[in-house]
């Protein structure tokens, strides 16, 4: 097999503070992200902060079309072909619309090549076309709705050079950023990846830790978690008094609470049920004993007891009761969690994957204990929790700002699909 | 038919500033909510703000058990049976747990009746038991974990009187509150109610208005909305340039964008596609023309054109392009929306129901135009939007803090279920 | 002194489900809020839920102008003068603007009185004028920008009747709402009230509890809290390991951290300092001992030790270290907090006022322990914390969605002003 | 002047995917941030994505202490001295506390050098000490509270090597992140920098653009903005109907609204005042005319008119009225804003600095129009706005999640301080 992965190649050049202002990594990332590969042909790295660097990268792609696409992308970050050519122009044929294949501007300083010379574009503004006056040798940004018939616009990316803005001044930091959290991204794909991880870990006999908040029960998502437990996708549960209590309360006061859930009205007596549920389990002695006695007949804690999921319930100062299984001392709780994470002392292996759902306190506590190589997925409707977790700053942490119920619902249906595929392939 | 709905009746008394501190409405609401009914037997309303009021309410229920439950609920708001009896006590038989059926305290001033006298409870704290020293004639709150064997605790609600705290002082307002927005409520029921509304309105030939933001497309929820349109559940769409553009972009650049969506990676070229999509439609002349020409072959706007859903796309200063159908003038946009809401001038009826999804600007703009009797459901992952909408403050506005995708996904499956039920019943 | 507080009186009538749909309390609240008083002249309360009620209220005010203002306000909630008169009309003299003193519409069903008859207004929409066609006997809402010269508009509130929308149907709850939290309210006044409370409580030798999160230190607001402590406004502090650690870290690593704070850059070594600070105090044995040894020479914990502020530091599972003073057991922490709240066992009085700043966990934990009559102010930049606290639902809880630093900064300057006033008055 | 900035130098080595996983830029950034400088002595960049790279960096610092500090920092990112030595150990002398100067662990794979060999640390966890068993040649993480007297711990950073986790697998993106937004950072410094920018731009006769939302008025921050305008710090204002209306309403209905603000109660009639204010200005013809007529006598718009601040009020579909100066067409609004941003056509220079306060819509609209080299500061209590703006992703955008009032209050006091300094220096 040859070293050169792809047949279509174009050398591009990138100059300036390409390492410390992240241009080089960004460009390399884009090439990879769009399906190309690269070879660094020449690199000169400035010795000190004030010395500029330069690099020549051979961009490789499987098709000419893909190569063009990649070149267009990286051009917006200042990477221009070594062999420059003039920009291509087309006349506007319709008022208020650009010609087909128009070049769409960024908000960075831009130059276009006309008659072998690089001309600086005036009125720089993002999402405009670049209107060129060839006679005067000038170019400027024009908004779509301002286009007039007969104006000439740059089409394609050829002969366009973006000059990214400089780094902050001497003595300032680059303000390294840590988190990419968005509520607008398509989340389905991320959930599919999580399902694939769960499936893979189950297949190899690994261990998945679920760290969960009471929102799982409040939002009616308990049944999905129960399903994951029954199917063997969860081996360890870390939670607090609240999750276990609300779950058990729902199991014990099923009917009456069921009615209220069914009516969707606020459950005025809910808080009392909560306290009564705790009292009942305290009278039984432990959650497992209450399951044995038939007091608890369903729910997350029931499934944990039935399927040998190990659980650590950590106490907090806002707990009512608490349940008899709750470890009220914080240091003892940490010790118990460490044992599960590392494995060994509990006669089990360490944790391979960690799913944190709807809890800030527990997520951060567990984040403190986990080694960086355990992949963490943090799901919360509140961006702050996800941001805080992400601030741990490893590539392994994935933040998802979303509601618990749909997340777990979709997760269950994704593992369903995987199991079906797998059965089909095996069958 | 007799006037008295239910056979089990108990007269209760409520005293103090029961109207302006909302105690009376709260108590009446609880009776209704828990399935009972009431008859006001006697009412004395204080003439001025400083005069206390009093009322005797006959609480009615279908069973003795339900009656007891209702009495327990309203007792926490100060409504006590006219015929008071001593509280009932039980001994703690297990350390760290209350006896069965213990009375669970509130954080309000509380009195218990011992030997015919009302005794004030010390150490008042919510979610405790009330421990009574009968010999000394004292009572105090004790936490569950502090219970010692042999202590006597109040059980049931008999002989317990809560004395709700007073209103704010003279000259202060009661701070009337408007919104009940929560991210922890079971949402399934609310979605079911919305589905029922949509189904009912479709059956009677009414008109449903959907006000939507681009998040519908970003989150991959477009197909659910398309499904609702195809089934005839949406008659009018109000949106902005962004929703229509992202939707059309997805239709036109389907494959390549599809690939990216499939890979779940950030779509670096997305913004350009966006601009190119607008340009293409501007070149065609209008959205409907682009559908006719086969340029747009799927998506929300496509379904609107195909199924005669009327749409108003309102412009804003952050628009790129915009699309040729966008009404760029704000007053003209309002006029167009008024016509659809009121009906008549557009040859249609007025709007019966309004579903606002993932848009603050449009939601509030439409909220300004809607009469109070059109039921509004506002769905947003951001509580602020829902709070603002709810501040309109009518009973007709329902706020849901949730993700768009699961909301629409579940809504479609709920209307599915309704249609199946209906087919079954009719069949 | 006569019973009738104010000389100007107008009897108004209110009909419908005025108690359970909260109309009566709302109207009484408005009268009081706007500085009037009332006398209930006649009241008929429907016996059952389906029976309507009615009331005649004598609205009283100190001036005719104020009376008019109050009548205008309550008219929007359906309270109309017993002695109805026709509405008053004025001609539009300028296009696109209403005549002076125009009636501004609500979004509720509205009627205007013309020639002794009540006419229903068409095209109902909020914030419009009501345009009357006297000849045809019709009325409709018209937007400001649509006004044409010569159209007749209702001016003033006379002869306008709002018909509030009905309650939800049988079997539905009224959706009792709990919280009024806004980020747009003028907050200065609220802070002034808190300052007045602190000042009053200090004067009478009362006790103020501050429940604080580490955000107080992170945001650079520590010095303000120190100032409040030094001036004797805080008697008890509840916090966690984080607040105390960050505070002590700032005291111990003052210079180097000071430099970083001064440069505003992210403090990369901050987390290590944090751990070293804990280690240093653990080596000393306790916070008080570290103060005695001169290790801690400034900050919140230093001031607490120096000024006899009692503190309870409660542990949590996310704690590093923790500091030797931290109570790691949750039940023991609750017990320590109870002692301070109730007073007595600690040789002190109970707590009179509670200020919660920037902490969800501790705020809710303390909320669980506090009796309802202790006034609580909860300050957080995150609306969720404030909403949750407010859900306790007593009039005594005030929620403030704001940044910590400005809040404490302004609070200190407000107590400054109060002390100056007081010194002036006494001097 | 010699090329070597600092006398103390230590060569360090960094290996692996140092460019595309951002290790090299991160390390260079840290060196600079901590006040050191660097010289790249040797660099080998892997040609393709799977080839590792390596670099030798000479770290330079002004003092040995600083050099040590920098080396400690960058060691946590895998940069280790070329000339490795064994780690240094110290015995724990107190139970539950580390020895002074203990090495504080990260959550990354770590090795310590013992007798010339690199040993992998077991039980990896952040914020622990590394306990070494020299005889067995083993090392493991131990939490502070678990330390026993006599255990040996690593002190200092010598002989410790962190092995950062690998990049994501082939075909995955590095998930380039864009925004660093935090509510916990010390904000004072950032505000001081903004004040310095304003001061500098005023001195050179530059132009500052303020983009503001109505929150400026709601939060009572109007007077601070007025002060900035009067002092010549603002040359252009972009806003909507809401900001101008609320500001003018406060000016016109000063007394009565003042009373309400003073009482801190909700202003029931506020919305009507709002409409009446608009109507009054519409009757006058324009804001400037209303100022001339003495109708508007204070506030933001008043100061703009009096001090020649150019303003563009852009319309939106949620506007009431609107004010006569509002540009209701979105494209016309964009054109007006472009003219101000670019300068020239308005007889003025372009905009040098942009301060966006409390408005999502206008901030993003203006962000679309601004070239990347105009520094932007975006202030909002809502993280989403700041995140969206930051997503523009240039170093020039600074996001501040904070309340408007304190921000403007502090900004005014910071320019005060700067003016005083300047007067002092000049005097």
User: Unreliable runs of chain A, pLDDT <50, ≥5 residues?
Assistant: 168-186, 255-269
Biggest interchain interface, per-side counts: A-D, 68 and 68 residues
Number of DSSP helical runs of chain A: 14
Strand content of chain A: 15-25%
Question: What is the first-to-last residue Cα distance of chain A?
Answer: 35 Å
How many strands in all of chain A? 17
Percent of residues in helices of chain A? 25-40%
Summarize the structure.
Four copies of one chain form a homotetramer. Chain A is of the alpha/beta class and 427 residues long.
Describe the overall structure.
4 copies of one chain form a homotetramer. Chain A has helices at residues 23-33, 64-75, 188-203, 215-218, 222-230, 241-252, 254-263, 270-284, 287-292, 300-306, 330-342, 360-369, 383-390, 404-426; strands at 8-16, 37-44, 53-61, 80-81, 88-91, 109-114, 117-120, 129-133, 138-142, 152-155, 160-163, 208-212, 236-240, 310-314, 353-357, 375-380, 397-401. The first copy, chain A, has 427 residues and is α/β, with parallel strands linked by helices. Mean pLDDT of chain A is 84; it is low at 168-186 and 255-269. Chain A is elongated, with a radius of gyration of 29 Å. The relative contact order of chain A is 0.10. Chains in contact: A-B, A-C, A-D, B-C, B-D, C-D. The interface between A and D is large, with 68 and 68 residues.
């Amino acid at each position: 097999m040859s070293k050169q992965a792809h047949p279509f190649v174009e050398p591009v050049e990138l100059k300036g503070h390409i390492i410390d202002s992240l241009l080089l990594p960004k460009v390399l990332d884009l090439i990879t992200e769009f399906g190309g590969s690269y070879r660094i042909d020449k690199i000169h790295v400035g010795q000190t902060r004030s010395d500029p660097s330069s690099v020549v990268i051979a961009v490789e792609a499987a098709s000419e079309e893909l190569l063009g696409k990649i070149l267009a992308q990286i051009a917006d970050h200042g990477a221009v072909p070594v062999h420059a050519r003039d920009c291509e122009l087309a006349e506007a044929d319709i008022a208020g619309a650009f010609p087909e294949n128009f070049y769409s501007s960024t908000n960075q300083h831009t130059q276009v090549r006309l008659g072998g010379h690089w001309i600086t574009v005036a009125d720089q503004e993002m999402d405009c076309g670049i209107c060129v006056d060839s006679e005067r040798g000038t170019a400027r940004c024009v908004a779509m709705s301002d286009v007039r018939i007969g104006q000439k616009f740059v089409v394609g990316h050829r002969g366009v050079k973006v000059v990214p803005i400089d780094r902050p001044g001497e003595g300032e930091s680059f303000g390294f950023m840590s988190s990419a959290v968005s509520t607008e991204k398509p989340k389905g794909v991320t959930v599919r990846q999580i399902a694939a991880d769960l499936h893979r870990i189950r297949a190899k006999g690994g261990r998945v830790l679920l760290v969960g908040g009471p929102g799982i029960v409040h939002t009616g998502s308990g049944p999905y978690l129960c399903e994951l437990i029954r199917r063997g996708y969860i081996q360890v549960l870390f939670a607090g008094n609240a999750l276990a209590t609300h779950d058990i309360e729902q199991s014990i006061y099923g009917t009456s609470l069921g009615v209220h859930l069914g009516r969707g009205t606020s459950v005025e007596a809910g808080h009392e049920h909560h306290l009564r549920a705790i009292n009942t389990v305290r009278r039984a002695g432990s959650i497992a004993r209450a399951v044995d006695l038939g007091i608890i007949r369903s729910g997350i804690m029931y499934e944990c007891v039935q399927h040998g999921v190990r659980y650590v319930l950590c106490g907090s100062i806002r707990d009512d009761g608490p349940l008899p299984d709750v470890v009220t001392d914080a240091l003892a709780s940490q010790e118990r969690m460490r044992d599960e994470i590392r494995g060994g002392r509990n006669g089990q292996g360490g944790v391979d994957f960690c799913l944190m759902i709807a809890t800030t306190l527990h997520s951060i506590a567990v984040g403190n204990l986990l080694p960086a190589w355990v992949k963490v997925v943090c799901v919360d409707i509140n961006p702050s929790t996800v941001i805080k977790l992400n601030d741990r700053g490893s590539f392994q942490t994935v933040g998802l700002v979303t509601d618990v119920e749909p997340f777990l619902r979709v997760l269950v249906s994704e593992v369903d699909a995987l199991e079906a595929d797998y059965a089909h392939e095996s069958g």
